[in-house]
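Example S7 (C-alpha cells).
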C-alpha cells in the first residue's frame, strides 16, 4: 500500500467515535484520571521538562489531549496536533472542563505546518507506532525545536507474555478493524518498537543528552490503580519517557 493509502486508512480508524470514546474512558477518565497515577505521571513529565526551560510546547498525535494537558498545567503555551477531528473535539471539550487553555489543530504530524525552530518542547505519546515514516518524523520534530529545546517521547514497551498482551491491547468496544486495516497495520515499521530503538532514531536525528526518566512512581501508582480496577491492564506494559535535547 502507498503511504497516502495507509494514512487514509489510519485516519479513518482514529476518527471512529467508538475508538475516541474508548481512549477517553481508558486514559483520560481511567489511568490519567486516577489521582495518584496522574500525580506520578506529572512528576515524570515535570522531570523531563526540567532539562530545559520550555515556554512553548506542542504535543503530536495528542488524541484527547492526554499529554498536552500536563504541559498546559505547567504553564506552557501549548498546542495539541492530531489528524482526527473527533479526537480533537473531545480534546477541546476536556480542556474546557479542566479550564485549560490549549490550542488544538488538525494536522498530519508527519508534516506539521510550522517553521523550523518554533517550539521549546515537542512531545508525543503512543503515536510513532502508527506512522508510516517514524524516522523521518522524529527528524522533522527535532527541527521544530529551538536550540536547547526538548523532544519528549513517551510510550509503552509491549509485554512479551501472551496473557499480558491480551489484557494490554483491548480493541475499542463497538469498533472492528477491517481486513484492510489489519493489512495496513502490518506495514507499519514501528508497530513493535522499544525505547532502545527510539534512542537510535533520536541520535540519528541529531538529538543529544538523551535521558530515560525514572518511571518507578508511575509503576507503583499503577499497582494501586490495578487493585481498584483489576481489568484496567495498566501493569501489562512498561512505560518509558525519553527526553533528548537539540544542540
Ligand atoms: C494511540 S493514540 C495516542 C493519543 C494520545 N497521544 C494519548 O497518549 O492518549 C494515537 C493518536 O495519534 C493520532 N495520529 C496517528 N497518526 C497521525 C498522523 N499522521 N497525524 C496526526 N495524528 C495522527 C491519532 O489520531 C490518535 O489520536
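Recovered sequence:
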Amino acid at each position: 500500500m502507498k503511504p497516502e493509502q495507509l494514512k487514509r486508512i489510519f485516519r479513518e480508524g482514529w476518527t471512529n467515535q467508538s475508538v475516541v470514546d474508548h481512549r477517553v474512558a481508558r486514559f483520560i477518565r481511567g489511568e490519567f484520571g486516577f489521582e495518584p497515577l496522574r500525580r506520578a505521571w506529572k512528576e515524570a513529565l515535570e522531570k523531563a521538562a526540567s532539562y530545559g526551560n520550555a515556554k512553548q510546547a506542542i504535543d503530536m498525535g495528542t488524541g484527547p489531549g492526554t499529554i498536552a494537558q500536563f504541559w498546559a498545567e505547567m504553564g506552557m503555551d501549548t498546542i495539541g496536533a492530531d489528524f482526527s477531528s473527533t479526537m480533537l473535539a473531545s480534546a477541546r471539550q476536556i480542556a474546557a472542563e479542566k479550564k485549560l487553555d490549549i490550542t488544538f489543530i488538525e494536522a498530519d504530524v508527519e508534516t506539521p505546518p510550522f517553521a523550523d525552530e518554533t517550539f521549546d518542547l515537542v512531545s508525543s505519546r503512543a503515536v510513532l507506532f502508527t506512522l508510516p515514516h517514524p524516522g523521518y518524523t522524529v527528524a522533522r520534530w527535532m527541527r521544530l525545536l529551538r536550540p536547547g529545546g526538548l523532544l519528549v517521547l513517551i510510550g509503552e514497551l509491549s509485554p512479551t507474555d501472551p496473557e499480558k498482551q491480551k489484557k494490554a491491547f483491548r480493541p475499542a468496544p463497538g469498533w472492528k478493524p477491517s481486513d484492510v486495516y489489519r493489512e495496513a497495520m502490518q506495514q507499519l515499521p514501528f508497530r513493535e518498537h522499544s525505547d532502545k530503538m527510539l534512542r537510535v532514531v533520536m541520535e540519528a536525528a541529531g538529538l543529544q543528552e538523551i535521558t530515560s526518566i525514572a518511571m518507578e512512581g508511575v509503576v507503583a501508582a499503577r499497582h494501586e490503580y490495578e487493585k481498584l480496577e483489576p481489568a484496567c491492564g495498566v501493569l501489562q506494559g512498561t512505560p518509558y519517557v525519553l527526553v533528548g535535547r537539540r544542540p
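Notes on this example. DSSP finds ten helices and seven strands in the chain.
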